[in-house]
């Protein structure tokens, strides 16, 4: 049987990239799961703290993330849905993993390197170095490995940007298994599960991914955006001035991104979709993307509006989820503590 684990940071309402790149797969895996398969989905508050957060906003985002996951169809009766920060086993295991993970390996993570690059651009006059970045950013992927492995997860549905972190998690699992040998290897090596849409790009800068942190709010579509907001964001998406539509991610990333989004909505390949627009313009493509995205988000958006005021229900789901998660990870932690000698 499979153990599926995945997580999302509560740093604002999830966007179309999160949805098409990962969350849609969570729901599909839940639908296709066999009776013995386990599904565990987490809102990872501790990861969000690696960047400065306004406490009140974080608290709201944390709750909103739960409401969004319920509204897209995560069923708390079938899946364990919980806040990472309500299960201390994650940090306990992260500490043990920190003690077997070379710093050099963490410095090679592209997310860490891009943090350094960002700081350099923001302040290219003076030398910027690691002293400006907190240690949590460096060990972020170690906590992520603990999230996954504390449930001995076998399958991890995430977007392309998380692939390197997952490789590190496999690496850490393997190192642990070899360092602390027992009768059998303790951790499985978790596998990457991709959606057909691994990477959704920014609507304003199609050379970078759609992200929650980009300053321009027009660059991303939130799962709670109104029909008017969806329309204005897609109409304003950066494309190119070449006439006719072709799927060419390298030289026409803006148009390719729109085709990718449309293809995800219609369950087709972007190249197939492109054929229908060969003799049409960007305006025609955008109009259809607007309709497709609106169709995709209409139901979850209405469900979110209904759920967000259901305080008692949301608290109940979180409480039950956390208690299921803790009971589940306690079993692994007991084995782990025994292997390392903390008994
Ligand atoms: P986060 O919160 O940045 O994103 C949640 C999920 O959305 C995917 N994603 C995208 N996919 C396609 N195109 C995009 N533009 C795009 N932006 C985001 C991400 O790949 C992710 O699957 N470190 C993780 C959270 C995490 C986690 C874990 C995930 C913590 N522990 C354990 C899996 C397992 C993150 O920051 O995701």
TrEMBL record:
Keyword Transmembrane helix applies: no
Pfam families documented for this protein: tRNA-synt_1b
Annotated EC: 6.1.1.2
GO biological processes: mitochondrial tryptophanyl-tRNA aminoacylation
Catalytic activity: tRNA(Trp) + L-tryptophan + ATP = L-tryptophyl-tRNA(Trp) + AMP + diphosphate + H(+)
Family matches, as CDD domains: TrpRS_core (cd00806)
NCBIfam families: trpS
Record's protein name: Tryptophan--tRNA ligase, mitochondrial
Species of provenance: Cristinia sonorae
